[in-house]
Every structure is written in structure tokens, then in C-alpha cells.
Amino acid sequence: MKRVTPSTTGRTAAALLVLWMASWAMSYVDLGTWSLVIALGIAAVKAVLVVLFFMEIVLERVSVHATLAAGLAMVTLLIVFMVADVRTRETPPLGPTKVYRVR
Fold first, then answer.
1. What does the angle CA 25 – CA 76 – CA 48 come to, to the nearest 5 degrees?
2. SS3 assignment, position 54
3. What distance in Å separates the CA atoms of residue 59 and residue 23, rounded to the nearest whole number?
4. How far is residue 73 from each of residues 61, 69, 77, measured CA to CA in Å?
5. Which terminus of the chain is less hemmed in, N or C, by CB atoms within 10 Å?
6. What are the start-end ranges of the H helices in 2-88?
7. What is the C-alpha to C-alpha distance for residues 53 and 5, in angstroms, rounded to an integer?
8. Is residue 1 over pLDDT 60?
9. DSSP tag of 58
């Protein structure tokens, strides 16, 4: 059975440290809306590195890759539908439009 070599693990760990430093540095820079986009991009790259090399998914069979892809597709669909639901809701009124008095 193949294994991830120690040098690959070391390079992956170094890349994760560099990405960690980049996300830490991003916390001190104000890029407006792009701050969130860049931070999520860095987090996604770190997650992919951990899944591929530390969990050794890169060496697994095709069925494991297909299962991972199906799971990610389902999470993506849930997020897309959640965002669509929130964006299509009407804004709730700030207060009652008419006051009814009980006699």
C-alpha cells in the first residue's frame, strides 16, 4: 500500500503554516468585502490540503473519491438553497401597521 512520504507531509505542513500566517496577516488588513472572500479562499485551500495529504485521500480508491465528491455536492446544495431561501424572503415589518384596541 502506498503512503504519503515524510517529505510530502513536511511540505504540506509548511504550506499550511504559510497559509495560517497569511490568514493571520489578513486580520490586520482592511480590504472591505474582499477580506471575507480572501479569508474563505485561504480556508478552503487549507481544508483541501488537510483532506488530500494528512487524511491521505489522494491515495485512496476511486470509490472513496466519489463518496467525498457526493458529500461535498450535498453540502454545496444545502448552502445554495439556504442562501436562496434567505435572499428571497420579504423584509419583516418593523412594527404593527395598525393598532387594534380591545374594549
1. 45
2. helix
3. 28
4. 19, 6, 6
5. C
6. 6-26, 33-49, 62-87
7. 10
8. no
9. G
